[in-house]
Amino acid sequence: MKQRKLIELVCLLKQLDDDLIKCMKCGMCQAVCPLYKTSFMEPDVARGKLVLISHLVNELISSPEKVSKIVNKCLLCGSCAANCPSGVDVVKIFLKTRVIIAKFFKLSFVERLILRDIVAKPRLFEAIFNIAARTQKLFVQEQNPTLGSASCKIPFLTMLKDRHFVPPKKNTFHKQMAQKQSISEKNKIGIFAGCLVDKFFPEIGLSIVKILDELEMGYLVPDTQICCGIPAISSGDLQSFKSMVAQLINLYPVDELDYIVTPCASCTSTLKKIWPMFLKEFNEQQQEKILSISAKVMDISEFLIQKTNVAKKFKTHINSEQKIKITYHDPCHLKKSLNIYKEPRQIIKLNSRYELVEMQDSDACCGMGGSFNLKHYEISKEIGLKKLENIIKTEAKVIATSCPACMLQLIDMLSHRNVDIMVRHPIQILQEEKSCGPHRKI
Amino acid sequence: MDIKLVNKLKAILRYSDVFTDEATLHTYSYDSTCLEPVIPEVVVFPNSQEELGKVVRVLSQEGYAITVRGSGTNLSGGTIPAKQKGAVIVTTRLNKILEINLDDLYARVEPGVITFNLAKEVEKYGLFYPPDPGSQKVSTMGGNVAENAGGLRGLKYGVTGHYVMGLTFFDSFGELVKTGSKTVKCVSGYNLSSFMVGSEGTLGVISEITLKLIPKPSFAKSMLVIFDDIEKASFSVSDIIRHKIVPCTLEFLDNFTIRCVEQFRKTGLPIDAEAMLLIELDGHKSQVEEEFIQIEKILKKNGARLIKIAKNSLEKEAIWQARRDALPALARIRPSTILEDVTVPRSKIPEMIKAIQYIQQKYSLQLGIFGHVGDGNLHPTILTDIRDKEEFIKVEQAIDELFENCLTLEGTISGEHGIGIAKLKYMPKEFPKGTLVFSSRLKKAVDPKNILNPGKLVFRQF
């Protein structure tokens, strides 16, 4: 890198100095970092990355290219931050560094194409998925019917590698909801499904709707699905992030809504934590909306337990002799980022047909990390397989988790090992109780 | 970079185990000490004891200064590489527990095994590995032996060194040395295991450790005690021991630390309390219960304001959470945290605390004291901002004065953090010339080329 450019980079990174200085280099992050546990190398753990950024700031490093690679190789699971003795806001530092670095090392062609030209343009994004959903028979073969997983027949789609994925659905959640809007006078709940639920798991969205109907609550599902911005900001693409957020904040009549609920841990965490981190990038009017949405967003389980009488209405007392064992995986973006871990379990326990058994390290990262999985599939798989072992050990028939991204990863892992354990969202477990009656067999 | 060396190393290790790129080297330039980083020239990751030996031999032949590093959490600069021709050997991948022997009560481990993992593993068999340094969840056994790590249980169970039965290590030429035995008694030859314990990587490269295990106590009970007066608290500590009761843990928090912890966790700790003691007894149930009653009497007699006994595991957990919170709570007050570990004979604790308080006021610093008061090991923790040069000069003066006071009270400048680079300059204050000369002669005889972690713990010339 040219000297002049390097100086410019250092100047921009200096704004992080007050956050960086808090790291006392105790190294406790090594105990919890899923990536470190695969390599036992300092560049993989938060301390190593933080030192590299501060060495860049202090002009001790002359070639930032490798630093950029190292900082980008992180799941952003926040395990380090949640366990940091001195409270370093690691995720904020890494995201801001990625944004600054992206100004100097251009995004790859594929990243730019996907983020700027597709995901940031909701209509095009949807059209592409629509085509994919309709033509998938041509290039997809079924893998495991219990899990609903499939793999790619055509070798040229190298990005998919040997993944066992969930094919996109023709009928997205928001399309299915187009005819069915309900805004009661009493409660007004906005539903933000998130891209993955909308396109891959619309049934989770439908479960929410049925539960809200049952609770006689009014809700609103916008007629478009817009990305929360996490894929963009994780790649340091501030431009696409801003475009996504700017579109999304106009999608909801925020002032008329009491809450906005989401079934996606990553979306919840993005709206609540990451949006405010980048507040200064938006104009005053947008800032107001961002803060207002951010304050009203709740995880669906958290919302149901804290704000509704779901516990009374849904609690059943069926003394079935053979309860179905179910275990719960804590998504990083829910437990570590937002400290939500009780409510999803409470939701599951409302369905008395199930017996909740805890797995070892239920809050260990599943290895998905969004784009991390796309860029470092082998490492992601290694971390995911450790999770799988802990799930299998519980002998559960169902694994529930509050994040569709984790669900995709778990399905991939289970399908590769050909294990018949169903992957569900806690909301589906709750809604199953109401819709299927007590004698439905799994 | 020395291409010849790199090629030799790559012939021993996998291509991906040898690093010479700028970014990776920078991530091995520091440990947990507040010191200037030093960038090594090469970093290597051996995957077996055999590879470790070969690497030591090559580095020795090429005259590289070897700094062995586990998780890099030590607090005296012991794993900061040498300034010239520095090579770092990282042992984190040598992490196998080789044997847990239930008949002869020992464990054999590789140096990269994490302390906490070993403790958890032996517990499955009803056994106990007591040393529990603050960093136990990440620290490695090799590092624990090299630094002779302590912990909360020091008072009753001692420190790492008390559990080392035997070792294998590579000397400065890469020759394999075996010392100690799997037997309880062993007087064959020099006690080289003790020689290696606390040697901070200056005498050899540890490749395997045999550790003593003991049966796990069947019962434990904890209490939290509040005092309005520090002196009464520290007198109680001595009084408990005078009554021939040895708790497994006896921890102390001062008022500043109590206030920080309360602000951090909000569990209703009395913020006006001058001192808090956390006590745990373990052993057979009847004995523990009996001693507990005795302790309660002693504490009441000595004017404890409040005694809270944990009735169940949840309450016990809450009591120890306060202790675990001490460092995190303090660390959040200012950007930088300097953790010291002055240690004095138990009976001198009140005087030492008074001295620390005096120093704190003299230099007007933000300072909290907590620590293992049962074994005289205090952690005065200075909160500062290393970017504030003016304040940092005061911090350094305060630390100098802290050590002077500690030595006057017949204590030692380091109870468990080690000497490394950070405290080397204070060594002549603690020991007579003879000790330092003897140490440097020893070092010279064992490591004539001065390639084993040079610049740490011992003076080359004295």
Strand count of chain A? 10
* Spatial arrangement of strands, main beta sheet of chain B: 15-12-14-13-17-18-16
Q: Could you tell me the strand content of chain A as a percent range?
A: 5-15%
As laid out across the biggest beta sheet of chain A, the strand order is: 4-3-5-6
Radius of gyration of chain A: 22 Å
For the largest beta-sheet of chain A, the strand count, sense and barrel status come to: 4 strands, parallel
Mean pLDDT of chain A: 91
Whole-number mean pLDDT of chain B: 95
Largest interface: A-B, 29 and 38 residues
The number of strands of chain B is: 18
C-alpha termini separation of chain A: 59 Å
Q: How many helices of chain A?
A: 24
Work out the helicity level of chain A. Answer: 40-55%
Largest sheet of chain B: 7 strands, antiparallel
Low-confidence stretches of chain B: none
Oligomer: heterodimer
Number of helical elements of chain B: 15
Question: Summed up, what is this model?
Answer:
Chain A is an alpha/beta fold and 442 residues long. Chain A has helices at 3-13, 17-20, 36-39, 46-57, 64-72, 79-82, 90-102, 109-119, 122-135, 173-176, 195-199, 202-214, 230-234, 238-249, 265-277, 284-296, 300-307, 310-314, 332-338, 342-349, 371-375, 377-393, 404-416, 426-436, and strands spanning 140-144, 149-152, 188-191, 218-220, 259-262, 297-299, 324-329, 354-356, 398-401, 422-424.
Protein model, in words:
The complex is a heterodimer of chains A (442) and B (462). Chain A is of the alpha/beta class and 442 residues long. In chain A, 50% of the residues lie in helices and 9% in strands. Chain A has helices at 3-13, 17-20, 36-39, 46-57, 64-72, 79-82, 90-102, 109-119, 122-135, 173-176, 195-199, 202-214, 230-234, 238-249, 265-277, 284-296, 300-307, 310-314, 332-338, 342-349, 371-375, 377-393, 404-416, 426-436; strands at residues 140-144, 149-152, 188-191, 218-220, 259-262, 297-299, 324-329, 354-356, 398-401, 422-424. In chain A, the strands form 3 sheets. Chain A has a 4-stranded parallel beta sheet, sandwiched between helices. In chain A, strands 8-7-9-10 form a 4-stranded parallel beta sheet, with helices on both faces. In chain A, strands 1-2 form a two-stranded antiparallel sheet. In chain A, a hairpin with a 4-residue loop joins strand 1 (140-144) and strand 2 (149-152). The radius of gyration of chain A is 22 Å and the shape is globular. Helix content of chain B is 36%, strand content 21%. In chain B, strand 17 (366-372) and strand 18 (377-384) form a beta hairpin. In chain B, helix 9 (255-265) packs across helix 11 (313-331) and helix 12 runs antiparallel to helix 13. The longest helix of chain B is centred in the last third of the chain and has 20 residues, at 389-408. At the A-B interface, helix 4 and helix 5 of A face helix 2 and helix 11 of B.
